[in-house]
Amino acid sequence: MKRLFDILFSIILLVILSPLFIVVSIFIVTDSKGGIFFNQERVGWKGKHFKLHKFRTMRPASESAGQITVGMRDPRITSIGYGLRKYKLDELPQLLNILKGEMSVVGPRPEVPRYVALYNDEQRKVLNVKPGLTDYASIDFVDENAILAKSSNPEKTYIEEIMPLKLNLNKKYIQEMGMKTDIKIIVGTVKAIFK
Predict the structure, then answer these.
(1) Domain total of the chain
(2) What is the reported pLDDT for 9?
(3) What is the model's pTM?
(4) CB of 85 within 8 A of CB of 77?
(5) pLDDT at 64
């Protein structure tokens, strides 16, 4: 049932949002040099690695300077990138990941290998479910970049403070998994973005 919902949800949104995809793509290529999409290695279900798709919001080769972004004071982010990130529009290409079966609409957000390597055995249980486009943590930390921007050591703050809280919320989701919970999270995500 969940997989059928994922397929229908992603196909419908890809069709409806196709004009927006075109407009965003034009803005990206006219705003800065580089491709339209950014593909990043993430860890998914059962620890399998996959390429997560996003609209590019940073200048080429920015990831070599670190995988943590710090809100409005991160000079690597492009002009259009700030807007795309603010309204989570950069995440829309992940509908393709959902269609391919690498992700679900709702599930623990997939992390980069570098940080998954820091998980303890209990935290690794989040890899037993398919990662998602949104989850409880996406709602609670909708302003994560702004939080990190206030830190003198953003990566340390992420690893020691934010990541453990996110993983606890992921475990909460696993305990409550079901269509009712998924719909609640989808609605909550939309509200959080436009709040």
Answers:
(1) 1
(2) 97
(3) 0.90
(4) yes
(5) 62
Profile the chain (195 residues) by mean pLDDT over runs of 10 residues: 96 97 96 93 97 93 63 78 91 98 98 96 96 96 84 91 96 96 96 86
User: Which structural domain, as residue segments, surrounds residue 11?
Assistant: 2-194
> The tokens 């795309």 sit on which residue?
84
